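User: Can you recover a sequence for this backbone? Please restate the input before giving your answer.

Assistant: Of course. Working from this structure:
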């Protein structure tokens, strides 16, 4: 039951010792404030990195290099050319892969024209599944589909920078562009992604069906590299290993030749990044809890002084019939109020600071940092920690107070 007299007494004690209370509470305030700021900043860093992480978090990329081991009469140093036959073999022999994506390009940049306007752009041959590996921010129209692949259609999806340079303010949808003397109809427009320079470069890319690129530009049966997405629950490393095994068999590469095929496992890289984030969060908690503990020790010491100053008062209470529990609860509640109020103010200030920073940088490119915020779960945990810490800080002084003998206390000067 809510005891108004007891809480009025606690408030009166706080008011009588404003400076002492303020200095004691500052340690707790600063610890929680630092916790909110450090965790909020860590969250902002994490959001910024993941925002720039526009590749599927479980993607695998595999490409060819030169062989390093002689095999079946073939010398070392041989370059392996990936082909369309590898697509069929991989789809059949690597059932763990949800997506097998061959990719190729017109190496370098090529002059692309729209009437009198022309410039140099990257031209990549892709399959419909490409956006599952790397996000494509479509602004108009569509991406490549299966009929485009089977029909070797001369269609193009162009970046926003291509639109700016070749079309200006004219809507490019349905118009034609000339790539090395071959006309392609624009069926989609995408916005370049990434940081400023990367976004500009990405926006200067043109996607066409891979099969069309192979036939139209004399790249018949040539694949530059593969992208893969594992099925749900399958580690990317399993797919990566099986893909290399299949490709070694396909191209007569020694089973122990680890240099013939290069690869990048995004899942492993992402796990390392996640480990870094966990380390930052752990460090933030360690620093903040250390500061909070220092504040709590200060609270406990102050409460010991309070008990000493109020020895006579406690003796009178006990002489009038106050139980040890009532004495303990009074001291513990004073300690909880002191730590909880100071901590909640620190949490409020820290959260407000993160919200202010988030508002200031919204829509701006500030590198690997975006939307710093304090999680509600963390806030709840901090509040619970404060209540427990406040109780612990007051427990020792409260126990000492409960053991005060009325006769001894009344003689105290």
């Amino acid at each position: 039951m809510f005891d108004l007299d007891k809480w009025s007494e606690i408030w009166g004690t706080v008011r009588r010792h404003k400076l002492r209370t303020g200095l004691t509470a500052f340690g707790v305030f600063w610890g929680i404030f630092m916790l909110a700021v450090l965790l909020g900043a860590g969250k902002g860093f994490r959001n910024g990195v993941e925002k720039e992480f526009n590749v599927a978090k479980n993607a695998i990329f595999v490409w060819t290099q030169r062989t390093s081991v002689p095999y079946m009469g073939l010398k070392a140093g041989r370059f392996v050319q990936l082909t369309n036959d590898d697509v069929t073999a991989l789809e059949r022999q690597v059932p763990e892969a949800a997506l097998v994506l061959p990719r190729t390009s017109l190496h370098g940049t090529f002059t692309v024209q729209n009437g009198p306007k022309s410039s140099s752009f990257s031209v990549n041959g892709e399959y419909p599944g490409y956006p599952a590996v790397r996000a494509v921010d479509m602004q108009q129209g569509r991406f490549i589909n299966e009929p485009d692949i089977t029909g070797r259609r001369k269609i193009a999806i162009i970046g926003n920078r291509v639109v700016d340079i070749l079309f200006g303010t004219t809507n490019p949808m349905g118009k034609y562009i000339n790539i090395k003397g071959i006309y392609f109809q624009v069926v989609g427009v995408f916005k370049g992604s990434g940081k400023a320079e990367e976004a500009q470069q990405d926006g200067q890319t043109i996607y066409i069906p891979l099969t069309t690129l192979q036939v139209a530009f004399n790249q018949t049966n040539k694949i530059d590299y593969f992208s893969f997405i594992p099925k749900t629950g399958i580690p990317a490393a399993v797919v990566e290993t099986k893909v290399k095994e299949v490709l070694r068999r396909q191209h007569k590469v020694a089973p122990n030749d680890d240099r013939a095929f290069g690869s990048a496992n995004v899942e492993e890289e992402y796990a390392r990044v996640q480990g870094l984030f966990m380390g930052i969060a752990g460090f933030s908690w360690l620093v903040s809890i250390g500061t909070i503990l220092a504040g709590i020790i200060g609270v406990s010491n102050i409460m010991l002084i309070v008990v000493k100053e109020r020895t006579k008062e406690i003796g009178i209470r006990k002489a009038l019939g106050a139980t040890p529990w009532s004495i303990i609860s009074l001291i513990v509640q004073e300690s909880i109020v002191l730590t909880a109020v100071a901590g909640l103010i620190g949490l409020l200030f820290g959260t407000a600071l993160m919200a202010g920073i988030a508002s200031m940088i919204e829509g701006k490119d500030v590198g690997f940092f975006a939307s710093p915020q304090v999680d509600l779960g963390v806030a709840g945990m901090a509040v619970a920690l404060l209540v427990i810490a406040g109780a612990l800080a007051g427990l020792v002084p409260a126990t000492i107070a409960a053991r005060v003998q009325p006769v001894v206390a009344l003689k105290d000067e």
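That completes the design. The chain has two domains: 4-53+271-411, 103-224.
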